[in-house]
Every structure is written in structure tokens, then in C-alpha cells.
Amino acid sequence: MTEEGVTFSFRLPTRVGWEEKHSISTTTSAGGPISLNKSILGPQGAEAIIYWTSFPHGDYADPCARLLSPSVGPSASDLAAAVSTAPGTKLVEGPSDVALGGRPAKHVVLTVRERVGCDPGFFYTWRDVKGGALWPTTGVGVTIRVWIVDVDGVRLFIAAGTTEQADSGLEKEIQQTIRSIRFEGATPKMVKIAKRFMGARNAYDAEKTMSLVADDGVTAQLMSNNAMDPNMGGVRLNRDQLALALEAERLYGARYESFKCRRDPVPVWAGVAQVSCSYLMDNKLRQIAGYRPLRSSFGIRIRNGRIDLLGFPWLNIGFNPSGYRPAEAVRFMEWLEAEHPEAGRPGDRGELFRTQGQELIHVLTPESLDLLKGYLADYERSRTG
């Protein structure tokens, strides 16, 4: 399912009796999937419902202003507090801290004492599509379980209602379904962050770039011949080292032209959603060698609204004889080995490079960047006069 740009999935413990229902929003006239209903006592009235939407603007459902006022604060905790004090209900449990799909969430359990909410979802209203296991109202005696989770600024509202006729088996199926929820891919907000980040990199705006990364630094995923490969290792950079890496990127004249960022449909790194950015890559080494910009891409991983994994095409140079080496970097390394062997070679730690596995990794210190600046200028003069 997708709600306000957030894609998630769940698994039913059994398909027997469960029916997917669609709705039509009363304000936008948009229609789409809204709930799963199940009847165990007859062909029509359902004894259980699981529905999903968001606050304050659901795609296919509208919050009841009497219960969930637009003035509710911006956090999941604020929304959970409003739910727990809803008129016409008795608080059974919560608000409590739980996990939903691996993310922190709030959980509240209530019973309905008076019908003061919106139909059919008590907290939300929509125009139900008739037929099958109906849930036209959330009546007195119904138990409502609510889970609220913030997914990169989108507050998802997932609720389950059971009537007094629901048995323990039905309640167990609800719990199993909720536990199976998984969030898939990156969100639109993540894509926006990645685009801002790429724009700042191209502008060599270090301050803006640094404002978008995690406080504890990033993992720089090593690349294979200018392309990202999840089988490659990574280099952990604290914020000081990352600032130096961005300065080295400026010295190399690295550019990511015509970039496009999109949600990656399949998580690559540790099952975590990421954004994939494609681009035309150019840099000073390619220009000196007479090479055209190269089409490539790398992933950007975003957690809690901040970037914590990215790619630097220039950071590592493979010396594996199988050939996973950028052609422009090979020429630069050959020149360095002849003119400045102290810069570092495979198996040797130098002033500019160190060895990690089958890779030469840049040493990120102010001193090494001073050397890089001089080496690049000498290399350009040697090749172009």
C-alpha cells in the first residue's frame, strides 16, 4: 500500500475471510484501498477492521475534527495523546512506545462508550464501498487499537477495530498482520533531501552539504570503476573527514551534471531504503585525459532525515589487475608513481593514499589536501603544457 508517498506492505496470516475494501474521500473524491475487513458470524457485518491513513491529510480518509483537531502538535506523541483522550472512549492501554516495521511508534488501545466519532472509522470518515464484510460504523463496545508511526515526516495512522463478538483467534490475526508491516523503499521527502544534497555538491557549498548529513558522520561506499557496488567495502568518515572529502572533491573538480534522483525500489544496504541518483560524471582527471563525461550513479541512504551513506567516485582507486579501475585515475596514478612515489602505492601507506584491501584510499588530512592540490597542478602541466 502507499499512503501520502509512504509505501508499506503487510502479510495476512490467512486470507480466509479477509476482504480488501476501497473508499472514496469525502473531501477530495479520491478513491483507493483503505481497509481489511473480516466477518466470522455472517455474510455481511464485519467483526474486525484494519484501516490505514495519515494525519492530518489522509489520501482516502478524512480525520474527524471533533477528535483529531488540526491543532494537534507535529509529533507522533502529540497525535497519540489526542487519541488517548478522545471523548466517548475509555482508555485501556497507552500511549506506549512500540516498534512498527522496525520504526519507533506509539500504541493506544480504547473502547468506545459513546458514538461521538466519525463513521465508519470513529477517528476517520470515508465513503465506504458497499458489499461483502461491511463496517459501516464503529459502534459502542468496539475496541480500537491505534498505531502511529512517523515515516520521514509523514504520520501514518493504522487502526484495528473489533466488535464484542470477535474471538481471540481474530484478535491474534490482527496482531500478526500488524507485526508483519514493512516499509518499502525511500519516501518523497528522502528524494528531496538527496536532490538538495546533489545540488549543494555541484555548487561546492560545503555548509549546505554538511547540514544534510548525519551528526555522527557518514559511510562512504567504495565504488568499482566509478559505479556503486554493494559488494564493495566502505570507509567511515566523521564530520571533519567528510568536510575534507568535500574539499578534495572540489580540488578534483568533480561534477554530477544532469543528475536525477529517484526512489530505489529494492533496499541494497542492510535492508534500508535509499535514493539512487544518476548523473553525468566529469572531473579534472577526465578533462586532462580528454575523456567525455561518464554516465553513472550511486546510492544515498537517508535515516531520520539525514544522509549517512553516499558515494565518492574519486575516493578509491582499485589496483586489482581485473581492471576495476577508472581509466582517468590509472593515468594519474602512473604519473604519481613515477614523479611522487611518496604519495602511496599498493601495499604502501603514503602521504596521499593508503591501502585497504585491493583499493588505494585517499588519506583525508589538511596536509594531504595541500599535496593533492600541488600534484593535480603539476599533472595538468605535464600533460597539457
Structure characterization notes:
The protein has helices at 76-84, 168-179, 188-202, 206-211, 239-252, 284-289, 327-339, 366-384, and strands at residues 2-3, 6-9, 18-24, 31-38, 48-55, 62-63, 89-100, 103-112, 124-125, 127-128, 143-151, 154-162, 182-184, 218-221, 223-224, 227-228, 234-237, 255-263, 274-282, 294-303, 306-311, 316-318, 353-356, 359-362. By secondary structure, it is of the alpha+beta class. The protein folds into 2 domains: 2-183, Mog1/PsbP, alpha/beta/alpha sandwich (Protein Transport Mog1p, Chain A); 188-384, Nuclear Transport Factor 2, Chain: A (Roll). Helix 5 (239-252) packs parallel to helix 8. The mean pLDDT is 87.
Mean pLDDT: 87
Radius of gyration: 27 Å
CATH class identity of the largest domain: Alpha Beta
Alpha plus pi helix count: 8
β-sheet strand percentage: 35-45%
Query: Which architecture of the largest domain per CATH?
Result: Roll
* CATH domain topology of the largest domain: Nuclear Transport Factor 2, Chain: A
Task: Classify the helix fraction into a percent range.
Answer: 10-25%
Main sheet, how many strands, which sense, barrel?
8 strands, antiparallel
Number of strands: 24
Q: What general outline do the C-alpha atoms trace? A: elongated
Poorly predicted residue ranges: none
State the domain count.
Answer: 2
Distance between the termini: 60 Å
Spatial order of the strands in the main sheet? 7-8-11-12-5-4-3-10
The SS-based structural class is alpha+beta
